[in-house]
Structures
1.
Amino acid sequence: MSEGCRNSTTRCPRGFAKRSHRFTPRCASPKLAWAIGCLAVLATPQTLRAEPERPPNIVMIVADDQGWTDFGFMGHKVIQTPHLDRLASESAVFPNGYVPTSLCRASLATLMTGMFAHQHKICCNDPPDGVDRTQMHPFIQQAPALPRLLGKHRGYRSLQTGKFWEGHFSNAGFTDGMTMKGRHGDDGLVIGRKTMQPVYDFITERPDQPFFVWYAPMLPHEPHDPPARLLEKYATPDRNLKLAKYFAMCEWFDETCGELLKWLDEHQLRENTFVVFVVDNGWIQETGEVRTTRGNFAPKSKLSPYDGGLRTPVMLRWPGHTQPGRHTDLVSTIDLVPTMLAASGIDKPPEMPGLSLLDVAAGKGRLDRDAVFGEIFVHTAVDIDKPALNLTHRWVRAGDWKLISFEADPQRVELFNVSTDPFEERNQAPEQPDRVKTLKNRINDWWDALH
């Protein structure tokens, strides 16, 4: 055997590195050297330790104000999303995903903490008049935010881009970021719309460490100002211009996702990168001349208890750990932080009520739940310290049935079969009092258990 075997770093099947061994020319053969090395490792556990497996990189893609139907892979017949369609073909897809709260800031906080809004207290976009926004920042600082946990337990670097309402990016434990203090995200909002370079620079800066990237561009969120080439594609004579602009924005967002995913592939990062896709809340474009809400969205979408505001596809892609396919399980965005923690080898904190989706995504059975729950709050808070004072609705989906309760009128409820009536047009509550009672009790039990 050549003298070169003195510095061998060949790995034995048990995963032990043999750099600390020093083989000599008296080794009779490479096979014998390998065997001696493995036996030596087993005989001296205090000096030769197994190298910890590097956890996966994580890229979280968050669409902003996009309807759950508004993707090619979700069946939209006009909007083209070829890059996300491809991601769907490579992912475990959960078309029955939900956000608990259909409002930007509260939903994003749940995506970072794995908790309901009434737990983390970030339930409204704005504080009451006269209250400074900085008085709300301690909520995310005190929460078990994903970037903070990844860094503390597994040494992740983490990058915040795009939407972030909680002041400086470090408030959520990000090591790097673009947002310093703005309401939506100030400097972070250029991501996707103007550049992708900060993401690429961050990833290449320290290739020796696992990374977490929060890619939450303000897309297809207003302003709906798509590139002219895309608007021209959708602006047909028979289509409302507002709708055409929204459609074009959805494709623009898809293009940025495609650029990011292509870059990961070109830099050999696909195999050990966990890609998570979700929408922060839904959107139905209002096309009438008179606005019926506080913005350009239809009443049964953003800020509402209806699926147009709450429902989102969820996609998980981690080669070798997830399998392509669709799963009908009811999932919630409270499940995403536990899922990413599980992928990283970290136990979720006890205050997180969600479940890991990894086993289901790997094709190992169904999720152990039959219902998901949520809560809707006012846009501008009445009281930042008491979430219940800001509550407008609570809701549950159990199986095919969805019940909505109205806080202003405890006797008022709406019941829909969202399998046969996905746009919730026929309220069946008057016809099914027993089902209403059962589901209302479930809402109350869920609410009471977390208070």
2.
Amino acid sequence: MTEPAEDAGWMARRYYRRAVEAAIWGMPAASTQAMIEAFHDCGARFGDIVYFSRLPDWRWQITTPNATTYYAFSSLRLTDRPVILTLPPTEGSGLYGSIFDCWQNALADVGPAGEDAGRGGVYAILPPGYSGPVPDDAAIVRCPTRNAYILFRAIPADYGDEGVARTQAHIHGLRIAEMDATDEQRFIDIAGKPFEAFPEMDDTFFDRLAAILRDEPVGRTDLVAMGMAHTLGIGRDKPFEPDASQRETLARAAREAQAQMLADNLEINPLWPDRRWGSPTYIQHAQTAKPILSDERLDYDRRAALAYRMCGVPKTAGAARFFHVVCDSAGDPLRGDETYQLSIPTPVPARQFWALAIYDAVTFRFIRGAQAVEFNSLALPDDGTGRPVEIVFAPERPAGAQHWMETAPGHNWAAIFRLYGPDVAALEAGWKPEDIVRLAP
């Protein structure tokens, strides 16, 4: 018979193993819960719309955002009636939106890429199992979870005063309400305000996971995972009350899960044999491999890596091109206390504009306190010389640097180069960004 001390050790090891796997499986839902909490911290109620009256800065702490989009966001709680989303026509700007369940599955795109095709329309978002009446003119979106969110990316046709005003008018033309409700739509401007929308990878991760799962229906594909979560004290209508020792174990488990998801995201598959720029290997595999959910399995490792790096991924891929990099030309990590330079050949093959954003390489969020989180071509006049654009990265602005982006000592960083309206022919003809080069002290 096993000694009691050995029994306790075995139970502790099981608790730890289950916690690691529960964190990986639950990453998308815990991330959604963090967004819900950030939403409420802004003073918002379910169905309100938080938005940006001016472009975001580092305080917009979601994963891998950009600073050229006037975002709008709403968190939903589906009860016994559909939630009705009404969109205005968006001629003269792009109001791209997607509706997500609590696992961050894109249920439908709305706006130019959606059923309304930018002409305006009505969408009825149905609670789990709902079979009652819906508006006759509404497109039906069935949501399998009670918590959901809508993320809009509002992009002006031009960034002058008139174009931005038109975009803001389109945001304020949105309406989100339960069916038959007559409440006035509330808008909350969060420009320049903190929005901490990602779960910390410590024991509080499991508090967020428990909070969102407490009243969610359990899908058949998640029964085994819910068994793991139940070992931790997480379940429907179940208080989550770990003791101090368990919280220490949960914190270690969250860090191990984070290490796995981070490793998946730092493995970049180059797009060109002579460049470091590429995309995370698991994303490239997704283009040819089976989907995350198939008749054979739920690939929750890949789902977790995706949810750790980004949120609000539309159902239909957009027209932009994205190039990721996490290391310099020598293959070494990009360090926040070093100085680097990037040379971007011109003309850049982007019919609309191009942008380079940098992020903390552990959190994939904007670098806290950075004066500039993104450099883009919108404010860069074409001098007609064909000279490359030179950008310097350093914790302090070096003398003579025309274009500088601030990094943080002690923190590695990563970059994403985005082409909006890419010129595919030019890309196929051989255009590519240079690698980021570390400069000698």
